[in-house]
Amino acid sequence: MAAALERTRTAVPTGGMRVGLQQCTYSWEGGVPAIAGSLGDIARNAEAAGFASFWLMDHFFQIPSQGVPERDPMLEVYTALGFVAARTSRMRLGALVAGAVYRYPSVLIKSATTLDVLSGGRAYFGVGAAWFEREAQGLGIPFPPRPERFRLLEDTVRLARHSWSGETAPFLGRTLTASQPIQNPAPLTRPHPPILIAGRGPKRTLGLVARYADAWNIIALPKEGPRFLGALRERCSQIGRDPGEIETTVLDADDWRREENAAYQWSPEWELARLRTWRDIGFDHVIVNMPDAHDPAKLRLFGEIITALG
């Protein structure tokens, strides 16, 4: 298989598309005592394989789409990302994505700032309006109606930009007021960690992406990609922003692949063709998740795919 991939390399144009890895589950051989070692090994092996970024979900229960019981292990995202930061040196790190309702906005921004400082300037600030109401109810976390969650999301990204600019004047939003929004230390990434907003909604979400985001993430199938990119361009045009300023990222999730094709079977050739498709559509960054990322051989093979992609 490696030889087959090698033969394709000269035909692949050099491009700038990046490939990231999302780790969703924490159920490995050895149980809970093995989580730390397994997660650290996955992160180190992913970095060695050439992944440009590493992402963890911001959930407290396992989510239905992962095909595992909701009571299976789940880590708090920023604690886990700090752990990963200490075991890597190159990959960018982020939550895909933090729910704006789970933490006070200034605390969430402080968490992302801390990650950026301790990782040497490698953090994304991934944030969204949240959707998993049953999880929030199960843990006693307030989960307001969707319009209020989107107002809070907007205030969160506005406050992040305000705080990271060094501005300490009071911040007045629609859902919160901060009288002295100090973030010290400031993030190492300049002008600030990329603000990544996730979601597919053409009105609320893309409106926020066009106004405030440095990056955007959707879960999608390739056949949907051109339509979503076109919608982003349209929203940017409405406010006079260059869409090229926004990094476009897509989560090519395993469960969505199976939804597209019930007979889907992973192979290196299939993955290489899939990544090329996303690149040709025009996405800047593809994030994959794979249930067997704990297998070092699988990550080494994926490194060959990333090299073949060019």
Strand order across the biggest sheet? 3-2-1-11-10-9-8-5-4
**Poorly predicted sequence stretches spanning 5 or more consecutive residues:** 1-15
How many strands appear in the DSSP assignment? 11
Strand content: 5-15%
Looking at CATH, the homologous superfamily is: Luciferase-like domain
| Apparent shape | globular
Mean pLDDT: 92
Estimated structural class? alpha/beta
What is the succession of H and E elements? HEHEHEEHEHHEEEHEHEHHEH
CATH topology: TIM Barrel
Subunit arrangement of the protein: single chain
Individual helix count = 11
Any idea what the radius of gyration is? 19 Å
Largest sheet: 9 strands, parallel
The CATH architecture? Alpha-Beta Barrel
Helix content: 40-55%
CATH class: Alpha Beta
Q: In angstroms, what separates the terminal alpha carbons? A: 17 Å
**How many separate structural domains?**
1
Describe the model.
By secondary structure, this protein is of the alpha/beta class. It has a single domain (2-309), classed as Luciferase-like domain (TIM Barrel). The protein has helices at 2-8, 35-49, 77-85, 105-118, 133-139, 146-164, 204-212, 225-239, 254-260, 268-281, 296-309; strands at 18-23, 53-56, 92-95, 98-99, 125-128, 171-172, 177-178, 195-198, 215-219, 247-252, 285-289. Strand 4, helix 4 and strand 5 form a beta-alpha-beta unit. Helix 1 (2-8) packs parallel to helix 11 (296-309), helix 2 (35-49) packs parallel to helix 11 and helix 6 packs parallel to helix 7. The protein is globular.
